[in-house]
């Protein structure tokens, strides 16, 4: 699982994984997060597929697969990180949403804490986040460019009416827009001042 992938990109990689899990079955099953993620109260598993290498037996079932992924995520969210999220005024789920945006906005890990700080400042004053990746998520798959990340975005794209469009709607989008890395999660827990 690569940093910044969305669930559909993970699903597309499954046919070459050796697991007997279809992309369609994966997307459907990931709509109901395993109980181990109840602490974050997620809507779906989007945002909870911690980028990592997962070595699994070929006989791994869908439920086992999602449980392994969820448990790996849970193990990496430390009490110190939870306290950091809380210090920023964010629930765990809100922090994951913000980390998913930070992940997609950054090019290098070193800039994540600064990007998180900029977004926290915007949230704190009620400003829109103004993040291109949220618009890309809202637009979905672009068949012309054959990608989930249409680039460049047009002025009409920026006006696309979706609760994920952070140029139009202030605050966080309803769900994560990608699966953030541990570095992005830590940047949200401990942003630059």
Describe this structure in words.
This protein has helices spanning 7-13, 23-29, 62-76, 79-87, 92-105, 112-124, 132-139, 155-158, 182-189. The chain has 193 residues and is an all-alpha fold. The two termini are 31 Å apart. It contains nine helices and no strands. It is globular, with a radius of gyration of 16 Å.
Helix-strand blueprint:
Layout (H helix, E strand, L loop, with lengths): L6 H7 L9 H7 L32 H15 L2 H9 L4 H14 L6 H13 L7 H8 L15 H4 L23 H8 L4
Helix pairs in contact: 1-2, 4-9, 5-6, 5-9, 6-9
Residue runs with pLDDT of under 50 for 5 or more positions? none
Count of extended strands: 0
What gross morphology would you assign?
Answer: globular
Overall pLDDT: 96
Largest sheet: none
Strand content: under 5%
Distance between the termini: 31 Å
Share of helical residues: 40-55%
What string, H for helix and E for strand, traces the elements in order?
HHHHHHHHH
> What class would the helix/strand composition place it in?
mainly alpha
**Rg result:** 16 Å
Q: Count of DSSP helices?
A: 9
């Amino acid at each position: 699982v690569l940093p910044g992938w969305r669930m559909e990109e993970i699903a597309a990689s499954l046919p070459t994984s050796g697991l007997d899990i279809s992309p369609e079955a994966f997307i459907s099953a990931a709509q109901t997060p395993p109980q181990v993620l109840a602490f974050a109260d997620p809507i779906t598993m989007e945002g909870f597929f911690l980028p990592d290498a997962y070595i699994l037996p070929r006989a791994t079932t869908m439920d086992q697969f999602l449980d392994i992924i969820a448990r790996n995520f849970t193990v990496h969210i430390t009490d110190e990180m939870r306290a950091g999220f809380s210090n920023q005024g964010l629930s765990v789920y809100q922090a994951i949403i913000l980390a998913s945006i930070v992940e997609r906005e950054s090019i290098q890990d070193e800039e994540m804490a600064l990007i998180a700080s900029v977004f926290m400042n915007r949230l704190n004053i009620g400003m829109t986040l103004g993040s291109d990746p949220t618009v890309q998520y809202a637009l979905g798959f672009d068949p012309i460019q054959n990608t989930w990340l249409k680039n460049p975005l047009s002025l009409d794209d920026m006006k696309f009416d979706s609760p994920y469009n952070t140029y139009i709607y202030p605050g966080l989008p309803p769900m994560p827009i990608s699966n953030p890395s541990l570095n992005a999660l830590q940047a949200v827990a401990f942003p630059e001042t």
